[in-house]
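Subject: mismatched residue count in predicted assembly?

I count 291 residues in my input, but I want to confirm that the predicted structure covers every chain. Input:
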Amino acid sequence: MNTYTNIDFHCHSTASDGALSPTALVACAAEAGIDCLALTDHDTVAGLAEARQAADQRGMHFVNGVEISVTWSNKTLHIVGLGVDPTHPVLEQALSAVQHGRSERAKQIAERLEKLGVADAYSRALALADGGQLTRTHFARLLVQAGVSKDLKQAFKQHLGNGKPAAVRAQWLALDTAIDAIKSSGGVSVLAHPLRYDMTGAWRARMYAAFAEAGGQAVEVSSGVSQQPDELATCQKEAIRHQLLGSVGSDFHGPEQRWIRHGRLAPVPRGVRPVWEAFPGLLGAARGATL
Ligand code: AMP
Ligand code: MN
Ligand code: MN
Ligand code: MN
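Triage response: the counts match. Full output below for your records.
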């Protein structure tokens, strides 16, 4: 089996809300020392071909990924699919359903921002997304550009964060639909950044149980968006308790996220089995019964 020393199974490109093109992202990851990368854009596989070509040219191992938006118990969850076949019709259909919902929600967000005095919010956000999936990140960039917010963090805090006036609630895919689509297309399902959902421990326990019940296999125990030692310990304990495999993902969106230790994430903690050990096909081993 191939062994890699620096795995990152969660990041974004301009195909969704990342700041770098797939090619530039691969270059940035290589510079950070990453030798095994999955591109996991929000609800799209559009960046994969370009990223794979760039990774091939550098001798970096590349894994096809996607981060699917899900609504579960009235909450939004993100499910990362690793090792998916981007051309599989079941996955394509699932993604096109989420993309439709995303675009309808974007129109409603734009209407609310226009009331705040941002003219032509929809077309301007669309231009910022430049053909990629339109996300709240693009609206946050627009608020900064329009001088309404001083930076992205403030744009979320005042207007776009959950519960704020311009945060239109979306109806994303059902949890089992997303996991089934990932599985049908040959992939493994990973619950992304488990500590980012503003849930109590009791709610997280329900979330892990529902995820496993729907066929989910792994959880991002080492995440760039919650890298404190106590957070790692919480994820370790919860992965063990719910018998989930472990993954590592930075959730890197671009160099402006200076707090994300791109390429220097903690390894999968003791007692948790890495997802790539259970599914060696992710690391390029012969595809067989395991993936
Ligand atoms: P969406 O899927 O369109 O709702 O957008 C979600 C994306 O917005 C996430 O993937 C993050 O990249 C970004 N995001 C969400 N909350 C925040 C926040 N508080 N600060 C900065 N970025 C955020
Ligand atoms: Mn994002
Ligand atoms: Mn996410
Ligand atoms: Mn992400």
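The first strand starts at residue 7 and ends at 8. Marking this ticket as 'not a bug'.
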